[in-house]
Amino acid sequence: MWYFFLYFCCITIVKYFLNTIVGTYECKVDAKGRLMMPAPLKKQLASSLQDGFVLKRSVFQPCLELYPMDEWNLMMQKINKLNRFVKKNNDFIRRFTAGVKMVEIDALGRLLVPKDLVAFSNISKDVVFSSAVNIVEIWDKDLYEKSISGEDMDFADLAEEVMGNINDDDNGIS
Q: Which of 19, 40, 38 has the alpha carbon at shortest distance from 28?
């Protein structure tokens, strides 16, 4: 019995850490809108390659969000709990899923970004893949650099406001 308990705990821990994507990577887009998936990122997403991905517009930024299919399914479970007889919920669902595309990484490790999503994100030549916990943001490099430059906000104040009251571990480290 303990064996099954330990096995379940290990699987849960491994799944938790496997869903965390790490890193920021640069690449170039070719004339057909294909991006070469950086090798370290492709390695982290290896378990998701066969299931495919969902590519969508970001809600808050002029970038794209790449969801591994299992993460997309979790998001859809949350969204499916919304009451569709509430107009705001329907409006949200329509806008959240606008332009959503199922995509795959081809045999050469390339991701084809549809033209409408290229236009939305202003992707031109240089691209940044940026990890965002369990998904990957895809940015035009200039827009990414501008977004993290801090010109429009003080990151220290933002960090304190967002994370300052969180301490789940009783170790003094948030």
A: 38
Q: Are 127 and 111 in contact (CB under 8 A)?
A: no
**Amino acid in position 51:** D
pLDDT of amino acid 39: 87
Do 122 and 143 contact (CB within 8 A), yes or no? Answer: yes
Question: Which amino acid type is present at position 119?
Answer: A
* Token pair of 113 as six digits: 């970004």
Neighbours of 127 (CB within 10 A): 24
Across the strands, what pairs with 101? Answer: 55
Min mean pLDDT across 13-22, 44-53, 102-111 is at 13-22
Report pTM.
0.79
